[in-house]
Amino acid sequence: MRPKNTPNDPERRERILRAAIELVQRSGIASVTARSVAAEAGVPVGSVAYYFESVPGLLLEASARVLHLRTGTLGERLAGTRPDNVVRRLAELIHHQLTDQRTTSIVAYELYMLGMRDPKFREVSRASNAQLRDWLAEILPPAQAAHLAAVADGYQLQCLFEEETPSVARIERVLTG
Predict the structure, then answer these.
(1) Looking at the record's lineage, which domain of life comes first (predicted)?
(2) pLDDT attached to residue 2
(3) For the domain with range 10-52, which CATH number is right: 2.60.40, 1.10.150, 3.30.110, 1.10.10?
(4) Which fold has domain 59-176?
């Protein structure tokens, strides 16, 4: 017998959140509704409302989760970078995000763009954007770090529209351009 006031399904909230992210991956933000998320997670529709105040609230948390995962990859892949190899290492990271993590990158940018219209999403997007800039500022002068972060972010977004992924060498040339 389970104790009073304990969840019957302690993983339900997490399943709902993962289901929302999977729906965005597969079909885009417009596909995320309480019903679609509930069906994907295998839970009653009321569970979505129980754990999240609204679908935008669910998407906000999904956005924070995805962008946090991407910044975690940033730290892992760029540890030990020095001024003399920063552009090469950043080019390798971008290439990795355009190939091995392409789906996650598409989701991240789709959620990131919600920050253009919604102040809550804007804060999540700004924090994510600041991660690369702040990390680069530990290696490079702040103005150079800000410039490189902006070029990297913009170029990666542009590459997601292309059929062919540029090589690491091509990405490196664009970053130094």
Answers:
(1) Bacteria
(2) 44
(3) 1.10.10
(4) Tetracycline Repressor; domain 2 (1.10.357)
